[in-house]
Amino acid sequence: MRLDLVTIFPAFFEALDVSLLGKARQKGLIDSRVHDLRDFTTDRHRTVDDTPYGGGAGMVMRPEPWGLALDAILDGDDSASDPVVIFPSPAGERFTQAIARELAQEQQLVFACGRYEGIDHRVVEHAEGRGRVRLLSLGDYVLNGGEVASLAMIEAIGRLVPGVVGNPESLIEESHEDGLLEYPSYTKPAEWRGHEVPPVLLSGNHGAIAAWRREQQLERTRRVRPDLLPPEELAGA
Ligand code: ADE
C-alpha cells in the first residue's frame, strides 16, 4: 500500500518508522511518503494560510499550495490509477473499523492534513472532480490538525494490510471486528495481588470459554456502548 501524507509538520509522521508500521515499511508492505505543503508555496514567506472570507476567528489554508501538492502526487508517474484522497476533519463522516477494512484494500491513500480552521473548501471540491475523496472524522472532538487523526487512521488501516500483523487470527477477536467490544484478557500468573483469573479460563473447556467470552462482550457493550448492540441484544438489556 502506498501512503502520501501532505502536512506542514512532517515530523509528526516520524511515528511511522516505529513498531508494527515501521516493520511493515521495512518489509516493503507500506510505502509512505511525506510531503511538506510549504514546498508547494510560491512566495518568499512560504505562506499557507490567510484570513477567512466572511470574517471569523482563525486562519484558513489557502488553496494554491494544496492544488500543486495534490497535482504532484496524483499526476506522479508512480501514482496508483485511482487513489483515495482523505481529508481528516471533525466535519467528516465518522471513521470506523468498517471504513478501515474498506480502505485497507486500496492501493494508494493520500492524507491531506489541514491545520487552523481547515482548508479552503474548493480544494475538496476540486479533488472530488478528480477522483475518490473521503472526509473522515476520528470522533466528536476537535484536534489541532489532521496529522494525529491521520496517524490513528493509518494505524487502523495499516494493520489490516495482509502481512503487517504476523498472526492474522489476532485481528479477528478484537473490539469492533464483530460489532461488539472485546472480552477482557488475562495471562500468567493465575493470581496477582489478590485478583484471580476467572476460573472458566483455566478449565480447558473450549465451549464454556467461548460462551463466557461472548457473554463478557455483550455485558461490556451493553454497559458502555449500548449504541453498538444489535437490536435483538438490545431487547434483552
Ligand atoms: N481534525 C481536527 N479534528 C479532527 C477530528 N476529530 N477528526 C479528524 N480530523 C480532525
From TrEMBL:
Coiled coil: none annotated. It is an enzyme of class 2 (transferase). Residues 1-229 form the tRNA methyltransferase TRMD/TRM10-type domain. Its main location: cytoplasm. It is found in: Cytoplasm. The keyword Cytoplasm applies. Transmembrane segments: none annotated. One of its GO terms (biological process) is tRNA N1-guanine methylation. Gene3D superfamilies: 3.40.1280.10, tRNA(m1g37)methyltransferase, domain 2. S-adenosyl-L-methionine binds at residues 114, 138-143. Its EC number is 2.1.1.228. GO terms for molecular function: tRNA (guanine(37)-N1)-methyltransferase activity. The keyword 4Fe-4S does not apply. It catalyses: guanosine(37) in tRNA + S-adenosyl-L-methionine = N(1)-methylguanosine(37) in tRNA + S-adenosyl-L-homocysteine + H(+). Keywords: Cytoplasm, Methyltransferase, S-adenosyl-L-methionine, Transferase, tRNA processing. It holds the Pfam family tRNA_m1G_MT. Homodimer. Belongs to the RNA methyltransferase TrmD family. Specifically methylates guanosine-37 in various tRNAs. This is tRNA (guanine-N(1)-)-methyltransferase. It comes from Arenivirga flava. The gene is trmD.
